[in-house]
Amino acid sequence: MITVGHILASKGQEVYTISPEATVYEALRLMAHKNIGAVLVMHAGKLVGIFSERDYARSVVLKGRASRETQIKELMSQHVIIIGPDESLEACMALMTERRIRHLPVVEDGQLVGLVSIGDVVKKIISYQHDTIQDLQAYITA
């Protein structure tokens, strides 16, 4: 069984975070620099929110707010859905689909250990399917 932990093992556990007091502009600059679609919001070592491109589009652009003046804490999603590293890839995908989210913080024993995106999940599924096909071809031709 492939787990969320396997995804983290292959992609790494680096997570980019920002403070709730940071501006939307600072978050966007970080996201653009790191080529990521979401940033986790941390305060005093605790996960307090997540800010994504979707939050920006819906809460800044459409409402005419200023990115350089609006703080992340005003727009971040505060109800953060998390997953554990031992959860299966199928459970992760089901949670993302059901909740219509693209990024899931990975938490183990109350500590943030990584972040997986829908792209990470799809990439792992494709890799697994490719390996399975090669194994089947080798079995058939043997």
Which percent range fits the helix content? 40-55%
Number of strands: 5
> What Rg, in angstroms, do the CA atoms define?
18 Å
β-sheet strand percentage: 15-25%
Structural class given helices, strands, pairing?
alpha+beta
Order of secondary-structure elements: HEHEEHHEEH
Query: How confident overall, as mean pLDDT?
Result: 90
Strand order of the largest sheet: 1-2-3
First-residue to last-residue Cα separation: 25 Å
Alpha plus pi helix count:
5
The 3D shape can be described as elongated
How does the major sheet shape up? 3 strands, mixed
What are the segments in which pLDDT stays under 50 over at least 5 consecutive residues?
none
Task: Describe this entry's structure for a reader.
This protein has 142 residues and is an alpha+beta fold. The protein is 44% helix and 20% strand. It has 5 helices and 5 strands, in the order αβαββααββα. Strands 1-2-3 form a 3-stranded mixed sheet. It has a two-stranded antiparallel ribbon with strand order 4-5. Strand 1 (17-18), helix 2 (24-34) and strand 2 (38-43) form a beta-alpha-beta unit. The longest helix has 24 residues, at 118-141. It is elongated and about 65 Å long. The two termini are 25 Å apart.
